[in-house]
Amino acid sequence: MPLDEDKYPMESGRRRFVKGVVGSAALAGVGTGSAMAIGATTNSSGVGGGTTQAMAIENVDGPAPRGMPIIPLTIENGELKGVWPEVTESKEDGQTVKVAETDMGGVTYSTQWFQYCGVQTYPGTQPENDQDNFFRVGSNPAYDWMSDLSAGDKLTVDMFDDYEEWGNGIGQSGLGKPATGRWRSEDVDQTMPIQVIRSPRIEEQAQDDEFLSAATEQGFLAWLNKCTHFCCVPGFKQLEGSASFDAEDKVYCQCHQSVYNPFSAVQTPFVALPRPGE
């Protein structure tokens, strides 16, 4: 394939749309506007949704309009577990809406953080869906060190014992040890992909940051691993080619070169799409 062509056929309207979006100077506005348009046209009978504030790993380059939302976590008997907030009810536009939210280090943590890229339709994001919340190995682990693990295995603290020196030849060693996995996705058709990292940097930051102190533990940080641009699945230290985009020590999305910094937690606004009607 010639170097000046991308993966979409020349006649594809999606190809023209992708190239147009990537080149747009008003990209952040396009991301938010598109979310509102999708919500209005495809989920008009849904519940919840609307403008929300989420804590995310910061988007620092590329076309993504915002960061990827952080999943607060805890450790239970040495096993990593995402925090699922308490379910409450509220009235919105004359209908009762179930929302799962709780205070997390002075920030309102809500499941609306994950209502984008179609994830709002997944069983795992429904407030009262019965899941155990443990982080588990996915069907295609991204790192060699995970090769002896099986899909569905719980991620445990002792798997990350070498986090202060771990490296895989991409970027700098010792920044932290990552894993890929899934969350709230057992016995359902749709998988919520996550990434976890244990890092000395996170341990240090949590000492002076109220949110990180509440949302991380023993240097572990997790996020929903769905790029906010076109919903691809990025990776931390997964591709040697990420160095060409100054992303060898960051989270890199090879689809359209969006880059995220897992060591920069920021509050970001976005439009949460409605969940399916109840």
Q: What is the gyration radius calculated from CA atoms?
A: 19 Å
Helical region count? 4
Determine the fraction of residues in helical runs and give it as a percent range: 10-25%
Principal-axis shape = globular
Rounded to the nearest angstrom, the distance between the terminal CA atoms is 47 Å
Task: Explain how this protein is built.
- With 278 residues, the protein is an alpha+beta fold.
- It has one domain.
- It is built from four helices and 13 strands.
- The strands form four sheets. A five-stranded antiparallel sheet has the order 2-1-13-12-11, sandwiched between helices. The protein has a three-stranded antiparallel sheet with strand order 5-6-7. A three-stranded antiparallel sheet has the order 8-9-10.
- Strand 8 and strand 9 (192-198) form a beta hairpin.
- It starts with 12 loop residues before the first helix and ends in a 6-residue tail after the last strand.
- The model is unreliable at 1-44 (pLDDT under 50).
SSE blueprint and pairings:
Blueprint: H1 13-22, H2 27-42, E1 50-61, E2 68-69, E3 73-76, E4 79-82, E5 87-92, E6 95-104, E7 107-110, E8 177-183, E9 192-198, H3 200-206, H4 210-215, E10 220-224, E11 235-236, E12 251-253, E13 258-272
Antiparallel strand pairs: 1-2, 1-13, 3-4, 5-6, 6-7, 8-9, 9-10, 11-12, 12-13
Features:
278 residues; alpha+beta; 5-stranded antiparallel beta sheet; 3-stranded antiparallel beta sheet; 4 helices; 13 strands; 29% strand; globular
What's the quick description here?
The protein has 278 residues and is an alpha+beta fold. The chain is built from 4 helices and 13 strands.
